[in-house]
Design goal:
Helix 5 packs antiparallel against helix 9. The chain is 60% helix and 10% strand. The protein contains 11 helices and 4 strands, in the order αααβαβαααααββαα. The chain is α+β, with helices and mostly antiparallel strands. Strands 1-2-3-4 form a 4-stranded antiparallel sheet. The protein has helices at residues 11-25, 71-83, 85-106, 128-133, 161-227, 233-248, 250-267, 297-303, 305-325, 371-437, 443-477; strands at 111-122, 142-156, 331-342, 354-363. The relative contact order is 0.16.
């Protein structure tokens, strides 16, 4: 395309303005971003993990669920990662942020457009123009208009407002990507938590049903002894009460089982009850694996998606300060238009129909009664908020890991103690029943031992599930799952 500017000395002012604008566009207002320094502090409870006697080796963090050695668990989490609706929404948010970043980046480039029209109009003779023009010889009321234009415009980023905006959008995209990873970690951990709750509820239901049968058998023994005159009616009432108490323990456990199976179905993006039948068979085959944690908290910060997202939001807020400060300086834009316009088709694409123009636009907010300063203050306030949230995210990350490790270690110790208690209670309960049959102990003493045994067994089944859930919490706190 030929130049739209006239030849000769007329080039100099325009070219000089363009050169000055390009030189200024290399400048960028506002503070440059520097990642805040973080003092590395050792994780106090990391050494406790080395003292564990794990049942399986340490798995890879990105697929920690495979370390439990339970195919049912691995299948469930793979289905959750493929079908979870929260994860789908997070992926959609990433796509939105990616599109926003592309838009912000494209604003720094020239913009061109092509337009054209072909119109036919009939002039009113009663209009002011029609009354004047109709008096001239050769006047034609019906006219054709053909027009074809190509235009271009470019906003010169003198103070770097567009550059800062594009950098902020890129940082917000990275924050959205980190948040999506955080959702992935959360839904995988939630699915594993629901799975182990289901297995725990199933084990406790099996114990409760066994206790119902044991209470019914004990009631039969009491009735047989009553026939022989060795028991009393009061003991029959005690046995019946114990049987009713055993049955009363089942409904809450069934409610918990239903709640967790429905929760798991929703996590898999399915209607409640869709996959429940698949978990009704079989038992918990999982083994809690070994977990090794670096004592350096810096490595933890590099992996946790919430910390990564908070840091990227901090970077974006820093760029917004520069974007706000750029309003102190003028906005310049270049525009050009070249095209053809004709009242007839015959001479449309000829030199006589050519039209061209170029322009240099200026916009400068000189008097705005402190709006720019207020916008800068708001951007700085948002940056201070983002910095505080970033620091909090780092503290929360360390807190999560310390708590999860302590919970895992202590629950495993509790599990060992409960195993010893259950073994002792089983012997005590058997001895008490034999002593009752021999007339040495009363039924009340047998029922007391029975309650103690059931309580220990139920607690042991619950703690067994909690052990696995605590291990899941450690993997989640470490940012495992991506």
């Amino acid at each position: 395309m030929n130049s739209i500017f006239p030849s000769g000395a007329g080039h100099l002012p325009v070219l000089g303005a363009l050169a000055a604008a390009l030189a200024l566009s290399a400048c960028t207002t506002g503070p440059d971003y520097h990642r805040p320094t973080y003092q590395d502090t050792p994780l106090r409870n990391a050494a406790l993990l080395q003292q564990r006697s794990a049942q399986a080796p340490m798995p890879a963090l990105d697929h920690w669920w495979d370390g439990f050695g339970d195919p049912a668990l691995s299948d469930i989490i793979q289905r959750v990662l493929a079908q979870n609706l929260d994860l789908s929404a997070a992926l959609a948010r990433v796509e939105q942020a990616r599109a926003t970043a592309r838009i912000a980046g494209a604003r720094r480039s020239p913009e061109g457009e092509l337009s054209g029209q072909a119109a036919r109009a009939k002039q009113s003779l009663q209009s002011p123009l029609g009354e004047i023009a109709s008096g001239f010889p050769g006047y034609q009321r019906t006219q054709n208009l053909f027009e074809l234009d190509a235009g271009a415009s470019w906003e010169l980023d003198l103070a770097g407002a567009l550059k800062r905006g594009a950098q902020a959008a890129d940082a917000e995209l990275q924050a959205a990507e980190a948040q999506q990873l955080g959702v992935r970690i959360s839904v995988a951990a939630e699915a594993a938590d629901a799975y182990f709750r289901i297995r725990g509820a199933q084990a406790r239901i099996a114990l409760a049903e066994h206790q119902v049968k044991a209470s019914a058998d004990l009631g039969e023994i009491v009735r047989l002894r009553l026939k022989d005159g060795l028991a009393s009616v009061a003991e029959i009432a005690q046995a019946d009460a114990r049987l009713a108490q055993s049955r009363a323990a089942l409904p809450p456990l069934r409610i918990e089982l239903e709640r967790q199976t429905n929760r798991l179905d929703v996590l898999m993006g399915a209607a409640p009850g869709t996959y429940a039948q698949q978990l009704s068979q079989g038992a918990d085959a999982s083994r809690v694996p070994a977990i090794a944690v670096s004592q350096s908290s810096v490595e933890l910060m590099r992996r946790r998606p919430d910390v990564i997202a908070a840091e990227r939001r901090l970077a974006a807020s820093n760029e917004r300060i520069g974007q706000a400060m750029a309003a102190w300086y003028p906005d310049l834009s270049l525009s050009a238009l070249v095209g053809f316009q004709s009242l007839g088709a015959a001479g449309f694409l000829t030199a006589n129909s050519l039209q061209a123009q170029g322009g240099l636009g200026l916009r400068w907010r000189l008097f705005d009664f402190g709006r720019i300063d207020a916008e800068i203050a708001r951007a700085k306030g948002a940056n201070a908020e983002a910095l505080a949230l970033y620091r909090k995210s780092m503290l929360t990350a360390v807190e999560d890991v310390e708590n999860a490790i302590m919970a895992l270690v202590q629950l495993e110790q509790q599990s060992r103690d409960l195993a010893a208690q259950v073994d002792a209670q089983q012997r005590a309960r058997g001895n008490a029943e034999e002593a009752y049959k021999g007339g040495v102990l009363s039924l009340a003493e047998v029922l007391t031992e029975d309650r103690l045994l059931l309580a220990a067994q139920d607690q042991m089944a619950q703690v067994h599930a909690d052990n696995a859930r605590a291990a899941v919490s450690v993997f989640r706190a470490l940012g495992g799952g991506w």
